[in-house]
Specification:
With 573 residues, this protein is of the alpha/beta class. The protein has 2 domains: 275 residues, Rossmann fold (3-Layer(aba) Sandwich), CATH 3.40.50.300; 215 residues, Rossmann fold, CATH 3.40.50. The protein contains 20 helices and 21 strands. A hairpin with a 5-residue loop joins β3 and β4. α1 crosses α9, α4 packs across α5 and α5 crosses α6. The chain is globular and about 75 Å long. The termini are far apart. The site of glutamine has 10 residues, from β17. Glutamine binds next to β17.
């Protein structure tokens, strides 16, 4: 007989419109349940046909999140990790593409033994199996389903979840509908009609919500609450208010004030294993919302003229890594987005960088804005402005150093200039083959790789400080790239003072440069990895913690030199 799984499930579905923060609500529910002592994980269902998010354009779908085990995933998994302070594997992201691909692959391999392969049971069984695999070993799995109630694409997943409920019993499930209550400006009144319709649409799939989380600009009043209660046939304690908040990290606190955790546990026939202690979390949220000091950081990237919204979303993990580091130091971080191309057309604009306490060059691909980024790196290197280079940022910092310090004129990455006389950044042979045969999906150097740190370097100190007791020799950060610092040029770069503070040594003995730094500079650190993917509230990533501390110092020094001097804090795109 099949062993019945013990895991309980909380399904989070959305109504009305997308983008109201289902990911944040799901992450907050996960965090609350974890604080009650339950072993909790989160699963994201993405009903799109893409196999994974790796081939999605960040400006359209937000950042591509990279998991420890190398998955290229929807950014909601990042939200979960940041709330939960845990790594969530790629199997916790289920897409329509994955479901159909495995069913069709199995059919091609003759595994269905001549049967007609159908939506029910083959597709639904595949969905159920994947949910079970991701949930295995946990007390509770929170499942967030992408899109909104009524989307055609959601139907197979909702159907499968009902089938799982039938298998396990209704006591294993709690259904949460996240809706939005708009206040149209011309009538200045909060409307519940879209929520009523969302309840109905979810009901068409056989799902009656147990809780309705009401996202809104303003607090929910009694009149609207009563209306929703009546439409959903729910008691008023099951209508959870979630008005806009200054920081997303406030959400679990707001939900807990309404005892959402206890209510969910009661419904799932589970008991709280310990009383949550929110003090430390609350203090960090207070630091985020009311920081004692403020620093301003410029992020110089390649930005399509799409407004600052898409930029924030494309680099969301960097923003949060800065917030987490700031929360420890009681420092708010103002971010200004700068289009690298402006330094190519107007080099005099480089002086604007003086008004920032630190500069970040994030990851990127292709040649747009590359020369502008290299100019900006030269500027921060020679003007002692704290700097972090992430992935492409490390590659371009190496190129800048090769050109301007080592005198290797026209040094470049073969990604941009395949004929450069000095291919400082180049592609490894295996990657070359993949590119020549157009195998783009899921073939980069992905996920966590080990880096051995050089004792006594700044990077080593940063990681050592974060670890406190244990001695740090190796660290694991997540990667998403094809190109590498060309090992041939490492000796000449080192001779001129570029310090490679961390390396990954491959089985064939090839040394891949993972971290670099410059001595004598207040803070000049770059990494081939994306450390922003391992930063969590309460557990900031060491690179960002060091950078934000250096920015605070730079700011203090500047105010000491120029008492009262007002700093310009924003540069237009
Ligand atoms: N384009 C570079 C590479 O593929 C850097 C990638 C990145 O910044 N994520 O190696």
């Amino acid at each position: 007989m099949k062993q019945k799984i013990k895991t309980r499930f909380v399904l989070v579905a959305g109504g009305v419109i997308s983008g109201v923060g289902k990911g944040v609500i799901s992450g907050s529910i996960g965090k609350i349940l974890k604080e009650h002592g339950l072993k909790t994980t989160l699963i994201k269902i993405d009903p799109y046909i893409n196999y994974d998010a790796g081939t999605l354009r960040p400006t359209e779908h937000g950042e591509v999140w990279v998991t420890e085990d190398g998955g290229e995933i929807d950014q909601d998994l990042g939200t979960y990790e940041r709330f939960m302070n845990m790594s969530i594997p790629k199997k916790n992201n289920i897409t329509t593409g994955q479901i159909y691909k495995s069913v069709i692959d199995r059919e091609r391999a003759g595994e269905y033994l001549g049967k007609t392969v159908q939506f029910v049971p083959h597709i639904t069984d595949e969905i159920i199996n994947r949910i079970k695999q991701a949930a295995e070993g946990y007390d509770i799995a929170v499942i967030e389903i992408g899109g909104t109630a009524g989307d055609y694409e959601n139907v197979p997943f909702l159907f499968a979840i009902k089938a799982l409920e039938r298998e396990l019993g209704a006591d294993h499930f709690a259904y949460v509908l996240v809706t939005y209550l708009p206040v149209p400006a011309h009538i200045d009144e909060m409307k519940t009609k879209p929520t009523q319709q969302a309840i109905r649409l979810l009901g068409e799939q056989g799902i009656l919500p147990d809780y309705i989380v009401c996202r809104s600009q303003f607090p929910l009043d009694d009149i609207r609450r009563k209306k929703i209660e009546a439409f959903a046939h729910l008691s008023s304690d099951r209508i959870i208010a979630a008005p806009d908040i200054a920081s997303i990290y406030h959400m679990p606190l707001g939900l807990e004030q309404q005892d959402f955790g206890k209510k969910l546990l009661k419904q799932l026939h589970l008991t709280s294993k310990h009383t949550p202690d929110w003090n430390a979390w609350q203090e960090r949220v207070h630091h985020i919302e009311h920081p004692e000091k403020k620093i301003s950081v410029a992020i110089i990237g390649k930005y399509l003229a799409n407004g600052s919204f898409s930029m924030t979303d494309s680099y969301i993990s960097i923003c949060h890594a800065l917030i987490h580091a700031g929360a420890e130091l009681n420092a708010g971080v103002d971010i200004t987005w700068i289009d690298a191309e402006r330094f190519e057309t107007n080099p005099e604009k480089l002086d604007d960088l003086q008004s920032f306490d630190g500069v970040i060059i994030p990851g990127g691909f292709g040649n747009t804005g590359v020369e502008g980024k290299i100019k900006a790196i030269e500027y921060v290197r020679t003007h002692d402005i704290p700097f972090v280079g992430l992935c492409y940022g490390l590659q371009l910092a190496t190129i800048e150093f090769a050109r301007n310090v080592c005198g290797l004129k026209d040094a470049h990455t073969t990604e941009v200039d395949p004929k450069t006389p000095y291919p400082i950044i180049d592609v490894l042979p295996l990657q070359k083959e993949l590119l020549q045969t157009n195998q783009y999906g899921g073939t980069m150097r992905l996920g966590a790789y080990e880096a051995t740190l050089k004792a006594g370097t700044l990077v080593h100190q940063l990681y050592q400080k974060a670890e406190q007791k244990a001695e740090v020799k190796v660290v694991y950060e997540r990667h998403r790239h094809r190109y590498e610092v060309n090992p041939t040029f490492v000796p000449v770069l080192e001779k001129k003072g570029l310090l490679f503070s961390g390396r990954h040594v491959r089985a064939d003995d090839t040394n891949l440069m993972e971290f670099l730094e410059l001595t004598g500079h207040p803070f000049f650190v770059a990494t081939q990895a994306h450390p922003e993917f391992k930063s969590r509230l309460g557990n900031p990533n060491p690179v960002f913690a060091g950078f934000v501390a250096a920015c605070c110092q730079a700011k203090e020094k500047q105010s000491f030199v120029q008492p009262g001097a007002a700093k310009q804090s924003s540069v237009a795109l």
